[in-house]
Q: What sequence folds into this?
């Protein structure tokens, strides 16, 4: 709740003081340990492994059977693809689209549900997009933080406003999203 409250505080105060709406949206980009973002970026990395292998891509376009991973090895790049998908499933296989519904099959139970997302990533994104997107988001968040703090310091009581805002930004950047604790497995935190 700390990060949610900090986001609400930021949006309210920055709108009041500077007339800017939804500043927390930019400030919360590319935070470390946000498992939802990490899953998407990791799937872009899987697409990067598959991208150089047209036979594998063609095979994936026609996959209907959830045992498709076993047949991958007969294609050039198939073993690398299989290893990349298994590594992804090993880390995120307990997740799924619409996972709030407990009856939905998990990705490890129905890996074909990942195939359209992987193919879409290959089609729509350039190689190494995941890393670039994360770095770009970090830069935008840090730039927005500095811009807001500089503007706040120009206001009456600006130093105090900037100090409080800096603290709230720190709460957002450190606690928003999901955290993974290896000892306890996945623990969802809406902070």
A:
């Amino acid at each position: 709740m700390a990060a949610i409250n900090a986001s609400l505080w930021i949006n309210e105060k920055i709108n009041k003081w500077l007339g800017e709406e939804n500043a927390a949206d930019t400030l919360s980009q590319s935070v470390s340990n946000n498992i939802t973002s990490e899953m998407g970026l990791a799937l872009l990395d899987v697409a990067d492994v598959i991208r150089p292998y047209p036979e594998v891509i063609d095979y994936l376009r026609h996959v209907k059977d959830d045992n498709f991973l076993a047949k991958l090895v007969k294609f050039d790049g198939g073993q690398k693809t299989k290893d990349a998908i298994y590594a992804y499933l090993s880390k995120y296989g307990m997740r799924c689209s619409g996972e709030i519904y407990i009856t939905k099959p998990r990705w490890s139970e129905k890996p074909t549900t990942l195939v359209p997302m992987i193919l879409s990533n290959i089609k729509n994104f350039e190689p190494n997009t995941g890393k670039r997107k994360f770095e770009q988001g970090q830069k935008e968040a840090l730039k927005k933080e500095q811009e807001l703090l500089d503007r706040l310091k120009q206001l009456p009581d600006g130093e105090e406003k900037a100090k409080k805002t800096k603290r709230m930004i720190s709460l957002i950047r450190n606690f928003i999203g999901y955290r993974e604790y290896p000892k306890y497995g996945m623990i969802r935190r809406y902070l």
Notes: Strands lie at 179-181, 185-187. The chain has nine helices and two strands.
